[in-house]
Amino acid sequence: MQTNSNYILVDTPKALELALLNLRQSKVLSIDTESSGYYTYYPRVCLIQINSRGKNYLIDPLRISNLSSLGPLFLDPEILKIFHSAQDDIKALKRDFSYEFVNVADTMISSRLLSMEQSSLSYLVEYYHKVTLSKVEQKSNWETRPLQKQQLRYAASDTAYLESIWLKMEEELKKRNLLDEAKSEFAFTAQEAYVAKEGEGFSLAKFPDILNFTPLERRKILELLRYRDEKAKRINKASFRVFGNDKLAQSVKEEPNEEKCMEWFGKKDGAEIYKLLISEYNDPIEASELTKRHGEDLNEEEDKKFQLAKKWRLRIMRIRRMEHSLLPSNKQLIAILKANPQNVEELRGLKIFSDWKVENYGPSLIAALSGSNYDSLLQKLTPIRSKEAFIAKRKKKQAKQQAEG
């Protein structure tokens, strides 16, 4: 066990046993993780940070093969687990270690409910503690060993402030009558099952400047992305580190010969990419196929319900004066209208919403989907900020978008 004033590096089974002596006595744990996703195709957790009673434990899962002893901590209902963006960390920990979680708090969800200017951890630390977190190691390679001191200090700082921030947020949520809603969202996040993503690990629509290519060029880019994705899987390397997007775009625009392709991509890959570039394609990709949104594949009756659901959502947003990130997404609304729940319990069974959303939004949403009037069902909803603050923030956002556009 390596110790200094900033962190305790836990990288042996014995060090883990010693750390657990303190962790098991704790009532509050602040938790974060560092993963390899910026460097590998298949991300894995490379470091688990747990702050307990003023001590920062940095637990190394690449050096300790069995971390099952942490599981009971995460399942203990008497221990509060604080995260920032709990969904990301919890899903990663479920994926790699099959942990389960209860009694969770999330400072990112809290920041959105409290209508703060930003929801990043660095913003919250600056706001509450007047401390600027370093971002130098944000894209560090966390698979490398030994980890460097600057990496460890960076990792420790991510949990050092979470407990004090949460305590301040908890008080504010209480004052605004939002704590029950927040806790329900936390519980929903903790219970969400990890589902492995299937299919292509890329999106043609997100390729840089894709609308500036011709339909045939888009088809060629798609084929090159598929080739890159398959190679990235084989060598477990982040796709953009296999071949850069700039080089793929250049090869499609300039149509290099085979020799030039080999120069750019290597002998074997260059030969395969050249074949893809000169192949004949009868299925060019129109711009309209890239800009399809959720709901465009609905039948007439489903689309009618979708429009009703979106009007309902707009009513909720205006009544509560809240950001769209806290409201049901198009994907969620479509899943609900396709399932066609007839009552609140059927909606709850879909496990799309938190219990708070089911109880407070469910009756009016079901009424909206059936075309019934639901005004009386919205009367008890609590605005999360003043009308003036809502309008001011919306105008500020619009001004920023216009400036950027």
Automatic annotation (TrEMBL):
InterPro entries: 3'-5'_exonuclease_dom, HRDC-like_sf, HRDC_dom, HRDC_dom_sf, RNase_D-like, RNaseH-like_sf, RNaseH_sf
The organism's place on the tree of life at top rank: Bacteria
GO MF terms, alphabetically ordered: 3'-5' exonuclease activity; nucleic acid binding; nucleotide binding
Gene3D superfamilies referenced in this protein's UniProt entry, alphabetically: HRDC domain, Ribonuclease H-like superfamily/Ribonuclease H
PROSITE patterns noted in UniProt: HRDC
Pfam families cross-referenced by the UniProt entry: DNA_pol_A_exo1 (PF01612), HRDC (PF00570)
Domain named HRDC: residues: 299-379
Protein's GO biological process: nucleobase-containing compound metabolic process
Protein's name according to its UniProt entry: Ribonuclease III
Origin species: Leptospira ryugenii
Lineage of the species this protein comes from: Bacteria, Pseudomonadati, Spirochaetota, Spirochaetia, Leptospirales
